C-alpha cells in the first residue's frame, strides 16, 4: 500500500490513477486550451479525445469497482458521467452529441485532476511526469523526422 497524503492506495491503484492524470493531460494537450475547437476537428482531434475518454472510463471502472472511497473522492456523479460517455462512444457512436461530451469533459476532468492532486498527490505528480516524458519523446520524434526530410531534399 502506498500512503499518499490523505489516502492509501495499492500499487496497482496508484499506477491507474497516474495513468488517469496522464490521459487527462493528453486531452488538455490535444485541445490546446480550446476543447470546443478540438471537438470540431472531425477525423482528427475529436476522435483522439473520444478514444482517450474511453480509456479514462475504463480506468475509472476498474478503480471504482473495488474502491468505493475513491469513487467518493472523485465524485460518484462525475464517474458515472464519464462511464456513460464511454458507453455511448463504444456502443452507440452515431448518437454522440459532441457538445454534450465536450461539456462533460470540460466540467468533470478538471474536478478529477483537483481531487487527485489534493488527495493522492504522489499519483498526480507521477501522471504529470509520465505525460511530460511522452510529450518530450513525441517532440524528439517530430524533430528527427524533420531532419530526415531535410536530408532527403
Give an account of the 3D structure:
Helix content is 82%, strand content 4%. It has a two-stranded antiparallel ribbon with strand order 1-2. The protein contains seven helices and two strands. Helix 1 runs antiparallel to helix 3, helix 1 packs across helix 7 and helix 6 packs across helix 7. It is mainly α.
Topology readout:
Elements: E1 2-4, E2 7-9, H1 11-31, H2 35-40, H3 45-66, H4 68-74, H5 76-91, H6 98-119, H7 121-152
Antiparallel strand pairs: 1-2
Helix pairs in contact: 1-3, 1-7, 3-4, 3-5, 5-6, 6-7
Briefly note the structural class of the backbone: mainly alpha
Mean pLDDT: 85
Shape: globular
Strand count: 2
How big is the Rg? 17 Å
Strand proportion, as a percent range, falls in under 5%
Q: What is the H/E order?
A: EEHHHHHHH
Contiguous runs where pLDDT drops below 50 for at least 5 residues: none
Count, helices: 7
* Arrangement of strands in the largest sheet: 1-2
The portion of residues assigned to helices is: over 70%
Report the major sheet: 2 strands, antiparallel
Query: How far is the N terminus from the C terminus?
Result: 55 Å
What is the assembly state of the chains in this entry? single chain
Protein traits:
mainly alpha; globular; two-stranded antiparallel sheet
What's a concise summary of this model?
The protein is mostly helical. The chain is built from 7 helices and 2 strands. The chain is globular, with a radius of gyration of 17 Å.
Amino acid at each position: 500500500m502506498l500512503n499518499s497524503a490523505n489516502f492509501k492506495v495499492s500499487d496497482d491503484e496508484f499506477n491507474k490513477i497516474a495513468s488517469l492524470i496522464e490521459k487527462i493531460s493528453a486531452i488538455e494537450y490535444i485541445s490546446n486550451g480550446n476543447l470546443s475547437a478540438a471537438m470540431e476537428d472531425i477525423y482528427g482531434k475529436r476522435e483522439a479525445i473520444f478514444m482517450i475518454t474511453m480509456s479514462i472510463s475504463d480506468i475509472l471502472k476498474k478503480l471504482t469497482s473495488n474502491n468505493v472511497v475513491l469513487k467518493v473522492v472523485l465524485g460518484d456523479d462525475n464517474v458515472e458521467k464519464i462511464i456513460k460517455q464511454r458507453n455511448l462512444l463504444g456502443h452507440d457512436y452515431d448518437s454522440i452529441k459532441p457538445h454534450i461530451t465536450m461539456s462533460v469533459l470540460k466540467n468533470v476532468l478538471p474536478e478529477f485532476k483537483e481531487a487527485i492532486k489534493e488527495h493522492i498527490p504522489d499519483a498526480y505528480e507521477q501522471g504529470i511526469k509520465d505525460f511530460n516524458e511522452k510529450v518530450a519523446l513525441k517532440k524528439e520524434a517530430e524533430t528527427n523526422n524533420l531532419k530526415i526530410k531535410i536530408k532527403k531534399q
